[in-house]
């Protein structure tokens, strides 16, 4: 189990990581997710030992490793730039950590290459600089695994790869985590990666962990408006009335001018916003769902098999979007410039505190 | 005027200049003509003259009809082989000075280059400026300064005298004094290539090595050293070749008692007015330079460096 207590990093007056407490169980796939500049890379670098914390403790299975050199911690970092040794072959790169820690080389290089789905016959003796991006990523992973760390740290290693390759490698990473039983800590700004691979998510904003939980929990009950919007494109309505009633809240917002009852988890601040995701929202000529508002259709964007319908209320700058299947949208007969109802069912509403 | 009109006018204008002056200057090799002329007149011509003179018997081609002879080669090469005359000593001096200078500058520069490129953040610019500023001063001035410092009854003498040491061997006019001079003068030529190659190593590469359990020694031997090797090789080439031709240092700090090829060439052309002999030695120096340059460059794969830049 990896645990940090009041972990803090400051650059002069800037607090990059603000008293962070995290707890990651052995074998877990944990993801630290947040926008650029939220302190996630700093946090990871402190876990790897490349940066000394200003304050706080890091413990691994009860042993304090806060001040341990990177050489002496059982962690290995897969860098965003992969950081392969350019003057070495693939084989030499992978043997490097094994020789450092006195591990038997034997057939391990071939074994590791196969594990990251590279053909050793073809790639083992290539120069590191001759590889493509995806191959470099795989070799970097194999090299880190060759170190046999307890914890594998990954700093957005998939960020610069194309969409298809990224998708595939995400799946492979999740499989590998399962197969090896090794703890993976992945840092990313991409929600898509975070949801797909992780057992546990830490959402970081301005150096603070603002929510921890399984991807499903966080998706269903985001702690703040920021997380709700970060977890998926959503329409947000500021509430102008919220009354508690048996574990639910009866809320009202000016744009849709209706009162609705939404379940709300106990122990949080009074809800301040109602959030509904784009793909839970539709447009129609009649109001057929539970909640809705009259809007003017500003723009229609076709996105593969769905359309994004961008709408505004007359005299208001807030933009609302409905994402619906192309066929369903065509069936309504609505076109750009028309007036329509933007609507959704009450059960799709999510309440979040400020 | 609309953008489209302007574009049309410009297109029309460029069409009109076909066959004009612009067209004449267009092939890129034209741009190389001035430099090529300069090289031809200032380098190739004199080189040919030197080679021609080395096979002559007198100092003038014009006055005496061409008279080919290998007498000077017999003298120099024979001298080196038999050990008679000064040529053997001169060759040993020259190679010893260059090799020692290269080794010393490397030993001094490598840690400094590492510190400047990878460790020191504050005052780094000040350090670099201190290293560059001496290059703006003439070598003569710096070397004469050394002479004033080292000569008997000079600055060093009076400092040492303060500690009660009266009698000590003169530091001037020795091979080691020349080496001290060349080491100082050519230090930047070693330092900067190594500094640049250190600078081009990515932080993540070093961190990855640390992360994968590399000890300081492993980090140095398997990561830093190979990745800074191009700088070492280029720096060694600069310093070795420049020291081979070091004339002022040998002249002033060697004081006429220690000769290197460069100072001996000057002696032959100047004091003894034997141009063919000077030319022969110049050809010899050129051959040594070319051969050592090839040997040094052979130790690195230039293509590998080019690829690493990708």
Written description of the protein model:
- The complex is a heterodimer of chains A (354) and B (310).
- In chain A, α2 (90-100) runs parallel beside α5 and α3 crosses α5 (133-146).
- Chain A is 25% helix and 36% strand.
- Chain A contains ten helices and 21 strands.
- By secondary structure, chain A is an alpha+beta fold.
- In chain A, the strands form five sheets. In chain A, strands 6-7-8-3-9-10 form a six-stranded mixed sheet, with helices on both faces. Chain A has a five-stranded antiparallel sheet with strand order 16-20-17-18-19.
- Chain A folds into two domains: 2-225, Rossmann fold (3-Layer(aba) Sandwich); 235-352, Beta Barrel (OB fold (Dihydrolipoamide Acetyltransferase, E2P)), CATH 2.40.50.
- With 310 residues, chain B is mostly helical.
- Chain B has one domain (84-308): MetI-like fold.
- Chain B has 15 helices and no strands.
- Chain B has helices spanning 3-16, 21-25, 33-54, 71-82, 87-119, 124-132, 139-150, 155-162, 175-199, 203-211, 216-244, 248-254, 261-269, 275-298, 302-308.
- The longest helix of chain B has 33 residues, at 87-119.
- Chain B is globular and about 80 Å long.
- The two termini of chain B are 45 Å apart.
- The model of chain B has no long low-confidence stretch (mean pLDDT 83).
